[in-house]
Design a protein that fits this description.
Strand order of the largest sheet: 1-3-2-4-5-6-7
Helix content: 40-55%
CATH class: Alpha Beta
CATH superfamily: Alpha/Beta hydrolase fold, catalytic domain
Number of domains: 1
Length: 347
């Protein structure tokens, strides 16, 4: 009897796994159709519940990290922090206070993160226009993950005309853009984001004022499709040039025990203790370790996906989250990307 039950469960699990693989394969071949179907649902829910949709939009936008005199004065300038996909709000727990203590005016940009990336770009532009109306100061942006794609899209889409709006004094000039763990060429794991979405929605439900349909009002998952390699959105985005005046830096995480700069030193040290005839093998090992590190990246975004042609890239030790924030609020650890960002932004 036990053997029959075990066999039954093996069959059920096998069927479930097969169905899962079939669904994922179907999503690959019918990506545009899935995007349109999800967007239809998202649009229909927004139309059916306009007041709830408006309340959700009003809860997002550009907001000061701290509202005292120092943060408003911004002795070292203004820095906008924009998060990525399914981020409930803890990503800046280490960087925002560090920037504030340095004397920056820190603004945090939030948005309905499941909606199409293009919709988030338009919302970001709308916030920039209204928040900085009449204020002529340059601004820096630090973007994590998908937030970097939103920033790039806002700055380069000719329909938005950001550069023209700068000349007209409608929006501030962006001098610095720092992309942290941004999947500039997509992230295959975006299609397996079930658990991060649950985490995001549990966080939203903890807010007593949140509408029960916020899980759909913040988007029906179109962003996850936009993030897939070779998506229509990324293909269009990567065909555009970055503004020439923009100082842009890329920071990528590495879960490998060595950074790219450490691997050659390790191999040279290894060669000193091995026979000369083994050197060709050690050079193969070097290339393999570098390739593995780039492929794995921060566990979600590979180094090659983070890379942009002609843009300086720096790797730091850490996962997609731990390179920029601590997992525990009580931890005294300094995430490796934090001092690097401070150095990049400080004159």
């Amino acid at each position: 009897m036990k053997l029959l039950k075990k066999k039954k469960w093996c069959i059920i699990l096998g069927i479930m796994l097969t169905l899962f693989l079939v669904v994922q394969a179907g999503r690959f071949f019918f990506r545009d159709q899935e995007w349109k179907a999800r967007n239809f649902i998202y649009t229909a829910v927004k139309r059916a519940y306009p007041e709830a949709a408006q309340r959700l939009e009003q809860s997002h936008g550009l907001k000061l990290f701290k509202t005292d005199t120092l943060s408003q004065r911004g002795a070292l300038g203004i820095v906008i922090l924009i998060h990525g996909l399914d981020e409930p709000g803890l990503i800046w727990m280490n960087l925002a206070p560090a920037l504030y203590e340095q004397g920056f005016r820190v603004l945090i940009m939030t948005y309905p993160n499941d909606q199409p990336i293009k919709a988030s770009s338009a919302f970001f532009l709308k916030q920039m226009t209204s928040y900085f109306a009449g204020e002529k100061r340059s601004v820096s942006i630090v973007a994590h993950s998908m937030g970097g794609l939103i920033s790039r899209d806002m700055l380069t889409d000719p329909l938005f005309g950001y550069s023209q709006k700068v000349e007209q004094g409608k929006v501030p000039r962006i001098d610095h853009l720092i992309l942290v763990g941004t999947p500039n060429h997509g992230a295959r794991l975006a299609q397996f984001r079930f658990f991060t979405e649950i985490r995001d929605q549990f966080h939203n439900l903890s807010n007593k004022e949140a509408h029960w349909l916020n899980s759909l009002l913040d988007g029906a998952g179109e962003a996850g499709i936009d993030l897939l390699p070779d998506s229509r959105f990324l293909t269009e985005l990567n065909s555009r040039s970055l503004p020439k005046y923009l100082d842009i830096q890329v920071i990528a995480g590495m879960v490998s025990p060595w950074s790219e700069s450490e691997i050659p030193a390790f191999i040279r040290h290894l060669e000193q203790n091995l026979p000369t005839e083994t050197r060709p093998t050690s050079r193969v090992l070097e290339k393999t370790l570098v390739s593995m590190g780039r492929t794995i990246g921060d566990g979600l975004v590979s180094v090659n996906s983070a890379r942009l042609n002609g843009v300086p890239l720096t790797t730091v030790q850490g996962t997609h989250l731990t390179m920029i924030r601590n997992i525990s609020v009580s931890s005294q650890r300094i995430p490796p990307a934090v001092p690097l960002i401070l150095k990049m932004l400080t004159p």
